[in-house]
Amino acid sequence: MNIKSSEKLVGRDSEFFKVRACFQARRNVLLEGPVGVGKTHLALAVTSDLGLPVFRVDGDNRYSEQKLSGWFDPPTVIRKGFQAESFMPGPLVEAMKKGGILFINELNRLPEGVQNILLPAIDERVIIIPRLGEIRAVDGFLVIATQNPKEFVATSHLSEAILDRFELIVLCYQNEEEEVDIVTKKFRAQGFVQKTSEILPIAAVKLVRLTREHPRVRRGASVRAAVSIALIGNILVRDGMVLKDAFLAAALMALPTRIELERESDSDQTAGQEVEALLKEWVDTIMNELTSQQIDVKKKIILKR
Questions:
Q1: Which of 131, 144, 139 is nearest to 47 (CA)?
Q2: 130 exposed, middle or buried (CB, 10 Å; 0-12, 13-18, 19+)?
Q3: CB 234 within 8 Å of CB 189
Q4: Is 264 or 3 the better-scoring residue by pLDDT?
């Protein structure tokens, strides 16, 4: 493809065009992938590119059916009764009336009853509000939703009826080059560009990718963790900390909440101590590797002279 996807994205050209094709075919989209792969970023990039109004819902197991569709305002009802002007539309009704996109972040965290309200809206493009009547969707109304894989904590099962109304696009982690590009752009956007810490985006990505590959890690971290490591580490370097120490300190802040280890049965260490020991080992390996690469590059430059 020689068409460029949204400038807001790094990579993801294939996924961008798939989502856009679904929208142009008037199909609803479900984006699936682990935490931090950019599902929300992709969804909003496509809607922005197409100039579509977006009405957002964030998945929560306490989210109610009434909050999604709308509710009658009690004080107004007392004064005027159950009329249209007493009704406070929720994001579903707003998207249907305005021909916009209902964006549901983490659909499989919504209670099953809330998911079921979507069926008539998606299928027949109509819902019935008690005491108000029928709401019909105007042209343009579509749903794009995201979900974490089923094995993630705090997710619920999506019914076959719901799944049958969506086209599925699965997102995996991006390659190393693209992840370094993502972190570097965030790094530079903060104005933290120093020769002593330009290595941090590369090192942070290598560390995060290692958490996804290591046999002792049950759940690895996303590029979001790499961004945190690079930004925090750079500030520590700026304030006088040695680069390697800053990298480790930032990693010890960013990763313990984002990774999960397979505990050793005979270990006398706490989970936190095991994570810290592994991070120290990984940081040593990565910094030694990157330092060696820098030395090799400098030698080649000298030889060329």
A1: 144
A2: exposed
A3: no
A4: 264
Give the rounded distance of the alpha carbon of 124 from its chain centre. 30
Between 223-238 and 176-189, two packed helices, what is the crossing angle to 10 degrees? 40
- Tell me how far apart the alpha carbons of residues 229 and 213 are, in angstroms, rounded to a whole number: 18
d(CA 283, CA 207): 7
Neighbouring C-alpha atoms within 13 Å toward the C-beta of 222: 12
Identify the structural domains of the chain with CATH numbers, from first to last.
Answer: 13-170 (3.40.50.300), 176-304 (1.10.8)
Q: Which two tokens stand for residue 131?
A: 């005491």
CA 54 vs. chain centroid, Å, equals 17
Q: What is the dihedral of CA 60, 64, 69, 75, to 10 degrees?
A: -130
Query: How far is the C-alpha of 81 from the C-alpha of 266, rounded, in Å?
Result: 68
Burial 183-219, CB ≥16 within 10 A → b, else e: bbebbeeeebeeeebebbbbbbbbbbbbbeeeeebeb
- Pairing of β 54-58 and β 28-32: unpaired
Residue range 94-141, pLDDT digits in tens: 999 999 999 999 998 888 888 888 899 998 999 998 888 899 999 999
- Asked if the model's pLDDT at residue 233 lies above 90, the reply is yes
pLDDT in tens, 131-169: 888 999 999 999 999 998 866 555 567 888 899 999 999
Helices and strands: H and E segment counts in the chain? 12, 11
In angstroms, rounded to a whole number, what is the distance separating the alpha carbons of residues 96 and 135?
8
Cβ-contact 256, 277 below 8 angstroms: no
pTM of the model: 0.84
> DSSP string spanning 261-282?
E---TT--S-HHHHHHHHHHHH
Contacts of 286 (CB under 8 A, 6+ apart): 203, 206, 207, 210
Q: Which of 40, 48, 54, 44 minimizes the C-alpha distance to 224?
A: 40
